[in-house]
Amino acid sequence: MIKTQEISINMGPQHPSTHGVFRCVLQLDGETVTNITNHTGYLHRGTEKLAEARTYTQVIPYTDRLDYIGAMLNNTGYVQTVEKLMGLEIPERAEYIRIILQELSRIANHMLFVGCYALDMAGFTGWMYTFRDRERVLDMLEMVCGSRMTFSFMRIGGVPEDLPEEFFPALRSFLDDFPKMIEEYNGLITGNEILQARSKGIGVLSKEMALAYGVTGPNLRASGVNYDVRKAEPYGIYDRFEFDVPVLENGDCFDRYYIRVLEMEQSARIIRQALEQIPEGPIMAKVPKVIKPPVGEAYHLVEGTKGLLGYYIVSDGSTKPYRLHIHSPSFVNLGVFPEISKGHNIQDTVLILASIDIVLGEVDR
Amino acid sequence: MENINLFVLLANWLRQWLEGVGASPDVIEVVMDVFGTVGALVFILLNALILVLLERKAAAFFQQRYGPNRWGPKGVFQTIFDSLKLLSKEDIIPKAVDKWVFKIAAYLIFIPAILVFAVIPFGEGMIISDLNIGIFYFVAVASTATLAFLMAGWGSNNKYSLIGGMRSVAQMVSYEIPLVFSLVGVVMLTGSMKMSAIVAAQTKVWFILPQFLAFLVYFIAGHAELNRGPFDMPEGEQEIVAGPYTEYSGMRWALFFLAEYANLVAVCSIATTMFLGGWNPIPGLGFLPIPTYVWFVLKVYFMIMLFMWTRWTFPRVRIDHLMHFGWKVLIPVSLVNILVTGIGIKIYQWMGW
Fold it and tell me: Is B238 within 8 Å of A350 when comparing Cβ atoms?
């Protein structure tokens, strides 16, 4: 008797579009995916354990290596947690600098996402367009701290250096060109018929499932849940800025893609306001030479590039954290990947993975 | 325009010389064919060399970057050094592959790519073999390339390759039909499948005007036929790594790409012959002292640029969308085109023009 046979196929850890060393095993019936098993851990470096043997300041570079695409946000999340633990007040100017750099980092991350989403359906030109513009953001961040990806710029109590002179004209010209860039992406990538046909109605993540799996960030907002930590529990000085939280309803790949484009616009809006309001003044609070937070614990949430990024620190009063735990959004979001990919084509699977926007440094920690 | 064609002069001179030596007619024919084949081969290889560079430069242009610019002025020697690198690479044949199939697939893919050049009229009087069924021959030979893809996919003993091979068959078989149907309109207008007759019929009006729909169908189906642009399913880099090419390395791998570019030239040549007037000069510019083969190459490169433009603009379609589009859009459209062309011809005859 003739019968068809399911094949299982290994996607990753070395595969062009698993965005790093992610591995999943696909069960294929022809080209239809019937089951997916996630295998993570290829990039596990034990960041949380390493932190226990480092002083509070020495942990900062490790946070860069989590979500290395939006590292400024990881830095900020960590130092804000320590500041919460120590009860530090941060100077105004430092707060504004943090906001500008965080949102720039977010724009860089979302540009990478938009480009990669195009690339994962072989839209190579779209990828080059976003990378051309992302380069300008990275150049600006390089002006500030001399590094393009792993910044380690935030310090406990503020920022180590003021923004350089040449940073402001570069930022202003970038913000002036920004609407044109978005228009270009919308023309080349968003408006493309093939992209729309391929991503609308694909990998639908319902509101209920998103909440049940603990999905956060743009993925959650694309499913129709209006939750952004910057609005819900404002940290830093986010409550001073006017910005919208884009929410889309369908929860399919296209919404997850398009919400990033909308978020980039909001980030630019925040940066514009911060540029207008930024005051003169000190950039560093009075912090003791040796950082010894009092005994206790602190949990702090920030809206990372991928979602809700949480740091939990337990202090035993020494110079090193007793325990550091990182709630990484990519890891949680990845859990939903097998569920929403079932029954789709193998080509859609790649697209769904791209739309979830994982970064393996954060998944494996 | 008459008799200034360098290549035709050379061929005539060779023929006369052979007759002078006293060779029998059969020997002369064989020698002439061999020389024609060598000429076509040189043309293919030269084009492949140029096209690899052109593709990278065109991609760079569309993407606002420089492209290769290290070797030679503006990077013109890039392909030569790439080929040298590929030649010097180890030819890895994995242990578990079906060795015979795996090896022969790389050569087999190149054969139809060369064979189709037998019927392409490069210029006035420049056709290796002016068959009565020229266009039919092209369609028949070109479709056999599918076999090589399937062999490579199966022989590699790799699931990614197998999926790629299967996709290739599904796609090529589906898109062969609209491709053939789109050419039928031209054949109906000309009343001949002979390449020289088709070109001769286009001295005044190119067939792209009365057969624009057919041209569009041919252009789209051509992408699928070439595995390029939005229809590069078999390769599907993002999903199936490199499809049938996954396990190939070194020169064997390069042969696939050589064949791809040879096919690109072939498909564009056929498009030029069928729709863009072949080697005829642009109407009104016939007085220019430009040889016919230059006109032909110019038009072919215009077509190639169109192909590159689409490739670097559009993302890849999904395999089932591709099938739907082929069967539900392209085939009906090409059938309608045949119907309209037939009615048009009848009206034309009835009016007595």
Answer: yes
User: Is B220 part of any domain?
Assistant: yes
Residue A237's domain is classified under what CATH number? 1.10.645.10
Closest CA to A103 of A140, A130, A78: A140
Between the CA of residue B218 and those of B56, B267, B314, B335, B337, what are the distances in Å? 25, 9, 18, 13, 12
The per-residue pLDDT for B249 is 82
Residue A283 domain-assigned (yes or no): yes
The Cα–Cα gap between A308 and A84 comes to: 18
Q: Is residue A106 part of a domain?
A: yes
How far is the C-alpha of A189 from the C-alpha of A192, rounded, in Å? 5
Q: Do residues A20 and A116 touch, judged by C-beta distance below 8 A?
A: no
Q: Mind giving me the DSSP string for B226-252?
A: HT-GGG-TTT-HHHHTTGGGTT--HHH
Nearest beta carbon to residue B230 from set A28, A118, A194: A194
Residue B209 lies in a domain: yes
**What residues in chain A have their Cβ under 8 A from chain B's Cβ atoms?**
7, 9, 15-17, 28, 31, 118-126, 128-129, 132, 188, 192, 194-195, 197-198, 345-350
Return d(Cα B159, Cα B26) in angstroms, integer: 50
What confidence tens digit (pLDDT) does each residue in B261-285 have?
Answer: 888 888 888 888 888 887 777 777 7
Q: Which chain A positions have a beta carbon within 8 Å of B163's beta carbon?
A: 28, 31, 346
Take residue A309 and report the two structure tokens written for it. 């990024």
Whether B1 maps to a domain, the answer reads: no
Nearest to A71 by CA among A265, A304, A264: A304
pLDDT at A312: 92
Instruction: Quick: pLDDT tens for A153-211.
Output: 888 888 888 888 888 899 999 999 999 989 988 888 888 888 888 888 888 888 899 89
Range of the domain at B231: 6-351
Please give the tally of structural domains in chain A. 1
Alpha carbons B167 and A28: distance in angstroms, whole number: 14
Nearest by CB to residue A194, choosing from B163, B239, B314, is B314
CB-based contact (8 Å) between B240 and chain A? yes
Domain annotation covers residue B198: yes
**Cα nearest neighbour of B66 on chain A:** A128
**Residue from B163, B167, B238, B312 whose CB has the most chain A CBs within 10 Å, to mutate:** B238
| In chain B, % of residues over pLDDT 70 | 98
Q: How many domains does the structure of chain B reveal?
A: 1
Beta-carbon pairs below 8 A across chains A and B:
78
In a domain, A326, yes or no: yes
Residue B1's pLDDT is what?
42
- Do the beta carbons of residue A108 and residue A145 sit within 8 Å? no
- What range does the domain containing A209 cover? 7-364
* Residues in CB range of A234: below 8 A, 6 or more apart: none
Token pair belonging to A352: 């769904």
Segments of chain A scoring below 50 in pLDDT? none
Would you call B64 and A128 a contact, using CB atoms and an 8 Å cutoff? yes
Q: In what order do the strands lie in the sheet with A321-327?
A: A296-303, A308-315, A321-327
**Contact B318/A at CB under 8 A:** yes
Vertex A262: Cα angle to A259 and A265 (nearest 5): 150
Looking at residue B129, its amino acid is S
Nearest-CA residue of chain B relative to A9?
B159
Which residue does chain B place closest to A116, by CA atoms? B238
Tell me the two tokens of residue B227.
């595995």
End-to-end CA distance of chain B: 30
Q: Where are the alpha helices (DSSP H) in chain A?
A: 47-51, 60-64, 71-86, 92-119, 124-145, 167-185, 193-199, 207-213, 218-222, 229-232, 253-277, 329-334, 337-341, 346-356, 360-364
Closest-CA distance of chain B to residue A198, Å: 7
Judging contacts by C-beta atoms under 8 Å, the chain A residues touching residue B239 are 17, 346-347, 349-350
Domain annotation covers residue A299: yes
